[in-house]
């Protein structure tokens, strides 16, 4: 792991979430799913510390396999699961989600909150579709434009951070080309950005700030965090996260 990622993960250590979301939003996405088979096989990919994994386990009452490349996130999830009485229901797997070893057609529901961008929306769908049974579902939250006329400043931010960002219709077309039907979608409210992600992230950044005086890479990561916070405060109505509820076509 290079120095940048070490500094990035220091900032993102012990946060409740690794991206925008809320328990209420996860439950709403579950509510909008088509009917699944009894005892569905569920993968939560890029689970991070796994707040949504706990919600999935409670909602479905079946084992959920949570996958992440960063073992400390999985350890945090295991501790949370034990505290919630869900230790037997949540299985963790230390693995990259672009090299899954699950058998083709063996999964009923793939869940990915705020992490599909790592592969790209279309590439993630194409990579994971073969794992789903016919009619299986994939739920992913993804950053999208909520305006057709973003300002130059906010467009420059996203061009540098995630140039593949598009709008809901753009992601619908990507999903259809990857062999999915868009069943439903909804925009996460602003509170889902701030309450459990950006506000705790900002607080941890302030705690680490004194260390950045002698750590140039940490200082860089904290400066990037401050830029993100500033963009979200000033342009939060121009973009957002959207839950996409998708079903594999035959």
Low-confidence stretches: none
Count of folded domains: 1
Q: What is the residue-averaged pLDDT? A: 96
Task: Indicate the percent of residues in helices.
Answer: 40-55%
**What is the CATH topology descriptor?**
Rossmann fold
Structural class: alpha/beta
**Count of DSSP helices?**
9
Question: What would you say this structure looks like, in words?
Answer:
It is a single chain. This protein has a single domain (15-154, 161-190, 237-248), classed as Vaccinia Virus protein VP39 (Rossmann fold, 3-Layer(aba) Sandwich). α1 (3-11) crosses α9 (216-235), α2 crosses α3 and α8 (191-212) packs antiparallel against α9 (216-235). A 7-stranded mixed beta sheet has the order 3-2-1-4-5-7-6, sandwiched between helices. The chain has 9 helices and 7 strands, in the order ααβαβαββαβααβααβ. The mean pLDDT is 96. The protein starts with a helix and ends with a strand. By secondary structure, the protein is of the alpha/beta class. It has helices spanning 3-11, 23-31, 51-60, 71-83, 121-128, 152-161, 168-177, 191-212, 216-235, and strands at residues 42-45, 64-68, 90-94, 107-113, 132-145, 180-187, 239-248. The radius of gyration is 18 Å and the shape is globular.
